[in-house]
Amino acid sequence: SKLTNLGHLEMTWRSRVRFHPLLVRILHKSRLRYYGKPEKKVDMPYQAYFEVADGSGMMSMVLWNSLCPEWYHSMKVGTVLLLDKYTIKTSYPFKTHPTPGDSQMKRFATIEISLNIRDPPTEISIIPEEMVKPEWGLPEVKYRFITRSELDDLPNNHSCDVIGLVTFVGRAERARKKEHSEDFWLYRWAHAIDGTSDQPFILELFATSQPDVFEHIHPMTYLVCTQMRVIQDLTENPSSTVYLTTSNESQIFITGWHKGQPYTKDAKVKNFIQWMKSQSEADQIEKTVIGGYYPFPRPPDSFLKY
Questions:
Q1: Which domains, ranges and CATH numbers included, belong to the chain?
Q2: I need a labelling partner for 36 at 20 to 30 A (CA). Which of 120, 152, 233, 273 fits?
Q3: What is the pLDDT of residues 20-48, one digit of tens each?
């Protein structure tokens, strides 16, 4: 059928009501958001953001309400979609934006694609990877993997991806979202090593929309975390340790979930796998720890500094 592209949509969307089908690849995926309120009568008040791209650039796509339970888990990073009967809306100005792996990619930030169950009902098709043709010109998923030896030189809030062997995982803890609210964030601390430094990655992992992965992070698993943010706060405490925290677009993968993921082709991921092949499993198991209370960032060593 006759297709359009994201660049053409941005130029012509105001003058059209009906749009041609779109062929795009998912490059980023946000966590699922629940926006239900007692006074609003929406059956399934869910929403999820994706960043999708074709040969012309990248745009946000929003999945609404009952389409979320139906499609959210099938729409993975790297998935190719054929979309028809979607709508175009002006972008929501306060949403978070992931850092693209390809810094040269053009970003269409003024509008977003909206997928709804009605008015009109969007038609979504997933194209299997083996049927994707090179002439479609869809971009590959690119990453920004770093090693532990590179971490200390990165600025605060820098976005990156990491892979490592889990040596410690703490218990799940809760933090209030706001001071007096009844809503909590669920998170846990983990350490992962990659052989490039004596120090591990210290990871603050908030529960994303992947409970099956979050609950099964164990020592000795290969852990991949994407779209992590560097927390490097040297103003309060000059000796403080740098750590990484999840963002709204972070995805977490453990052993058993890596097959077929786009990052398996990345050079730094391949280097890590090579390093792991040279390690003795028994030696690494002796150094692993699970559970317990993990106070971090650590308080200063003396009461005066505190």
A1: 6-136 (2.40.50.140), 148-304 (2.40.50.140)
A2: 120
A3: 999 999 999 999 999 888 888 888 999 99
